[in-house]
Amino acid sequence: MAFDGIVISNIVRDLNRTLTGGRIVKISQPEKDELILAVKNYDTYKLFISASASLPLIYLTAGNKPNPMTAPNFCMLLRKHLNSARILSVTQPGLERIIDLSIEHLDEMGDLCRKHLMVEIMGKHSNIIFCDESYRIVDSIKHVSGAVSSIREVLPGREYFIPKTQDKLDPLTLTRTDFEEKIVPKPLPAAGALCQSLTGISPLIANELCHEAGIDAGQPLSALLEEYRAHLYGTLDALISRVREGNFAPHIIYEDRGTLAPGSRQPVEFSSVPLHCYDSFPAMSSVSFDSVSELLETYYSSKNKLTRIRQKSSDLRRVIANAVERSSKKYDLQLKQLRDTEKREKFRIYGELLTTFGYTVSPGEKSVTVRNYYTDEDITIPLEPELSAIDNAKRYFDRYAKLKRTSEALTRLTAETKSELEHLDSIRTALDLAETEDDLAQLKEEMMDYGYIRRHYVQEKKGKKPAKKARITSRPLHYLSSDGYDIYVGKNNYQNDELTFQSASGGDWWFHAKGIPGSHVIVRARGEELPDRVYEEAGRLAAYYSKNREADKVEIDYTERRNIKKPGGAKPGFVVYYTNYSLMAAPVIDGLKLLSD
Question: Which of 329, 324, 335 minimizes the C-alpha distance to 422?
Fold first, then answer.
């Protein structure tokens, strides 16, 4: 992502158009490093500002966030000075990632004063700094002492200034001479030289400039012919002219390989100017937006959703990974022990042959060679010299019986362990498919039910009882086929069982990826014969909501619901069937309508 000087310039232009002349009617600080300013300017706008080290942001939003019971000190200070204050202008120094909100208000004496709210969008150094008219710091949302930064202290009473640590050039005032004398000689790749020499130019934009100029971004500028350098400067100058004129085109680049559901595609990059460097990638698509605020809210809400679910599921994934590791080791050991029992038949034959030909064995012999009547070949049988032939036969029969009992026990145990591994694999697949916190809550409940997570108990007078279960609101997905048939998709094992054995009727059609964890997909047949396209679309859903969703094709089994059975004691989501059809489906669900119920 590129929250660079060009995107900031786009934001400044939008904020000037909507906020200049407006009055601040409400100030809140929902998080320690976030502000929301409500500004009334004909309509009421909400300006969201975040100085988060991991996700610094500024954009107009229609949403809201809950506030703490007691407002933080910085918020109280801003309310004291800026309630009912008027925004005079929103500016950006050069192409720096800094926004200066110039604000006019009345002080305690009724005199007109001017203040500045400086918003710095600089990664881990991001900050929101409140300054007086002469740019002396009144306070900031983050304090930076000399012990933290030797370049600039951000403390009340200090003078505010923009640090010039990298001695970059301002693209808005760059000349061809500056380009040739200060950028071209740098011993860096072309994209790196542009990025490290110019303020507000991100690596993304630097690579886009090289792409537009038709040069190799990895080749040093000094190695280029003069005509190519002139073309690159011309491309840069055209971009800066576009920024000066406010000719922005906010858009998001999405990963679009056809395996991502509408509304849940993975955002890859965003920019306020066209990114033609992605044109040659068929896996990428571009979506335009009317405003950069809409772009940023869409982009980061998508990112936040994916990131939040991934973070919240990390503990569950770790539990599953540990359980899989333990069960896999146990399963490997059981299989090894089971293979060791395969030699039991040899001991049974030894016992039978010694019982039959024991009269030929002389006392004290360590082995005997007899005719094996099963293969009609001679076989040598090891003996214990101190034992008789009959006792040796009994010893072999005992070893056979012990190995047989072990084999029967291990066969049962390996089946149970394999079932447990399949169950764990299905939970892991469901974690990959989880889209909401309710989905995770239902998966956590399943993991507690099967002992992978300890259930909490509460102490009562009559003893302990399980803590109250979380309220589960997650429901199977509901799609509408192109021909108007309802298709339901379970997102985890409990939903699969409920969908197949409680919701579906015998004449409905059931789909599932063959031999791998995945969702149960039910098509409501309505007592009708389904069109071929419905089978194909349901197959695509079963392929997409399976462990192999990234494969080109997935084999799908499908049959009428009446043919699906659940063995007694089977894990949730596990079924058996003996009559089915098969089809190959691509995990592509574009064109299928996802209903909100």
Answer: 324
Coil, helix or strand for 129? strand
3-state DSSP helix/strand/coil % of the chain, to nearest 5: 40, 25, 35
Q: How far apart are CA 556 and CA 553, in angstroms?
A: 9
125-148 pLDDT, tens per residue? 899 999 999 999 999 999 999 888
Q: For 506-533, what is each residue's pLDDT tens digit? A: 999 999 999 999 999 999 999 899 999 9
Tally the residues of the chain.
Answer: 597
Give yes or no for a contact between 288 and 250, defined as CB atoms under 8 angstroms apart.
Answer: yes
Helix (H) or strand (E) holding 252: strand 251-255
Using CA atoms, how far apart are residues 337 and 340, in angstroms rounded to an integer? 5
Per-residue pLDDT tens over the stretch 340-363? 898 899 999 999 999 999 888 888
Q: At 425, give phi and psi (nearest 5°).
A: -65, -35
Q: List beta partners, residue 104.
A: 86, 114
Q: Which residues pair with 560 in a beta bridge?
A: 509
d(CA 414, CA 420): 10
E strand residue ranges, 42-181: 43-50, 57-61, 86-91, 98-106, 112-120, 127-131, 137-140
User: How does residue 306 score in pLDDT terms, banded at 50, 70 and 90?
Assistant: low
Q: Is the whole model's pTM more than 0.70, yes or no?
A: no
Give every CB contact of residue 100 below 8 A, 6+ residues apart in sequence.
Answer: 89, 90, 91, 92, 93, 116, 117, 118, 119
CA distance 34 to 12: 19
Instruction: Tell me, rounded to whole angstroms, the distance of Cα 488 from its chain centroid.
Output: 24
Task: Give the Cβ contact number of residue 113 at 10 Å.
Answer: 15
Which class for 375: exposed (0-12), middle (13-18), buried (19 or more C-beta within 10 A)? exposed
> HSE (CB half, 13 Å, CA atoms) of 454?
3
The residues, any chain, with a CB within 8 Å of residue 501's CB and separated by 6 or more, are: 564, 566
> First-to-last CA distance in the chain?
34
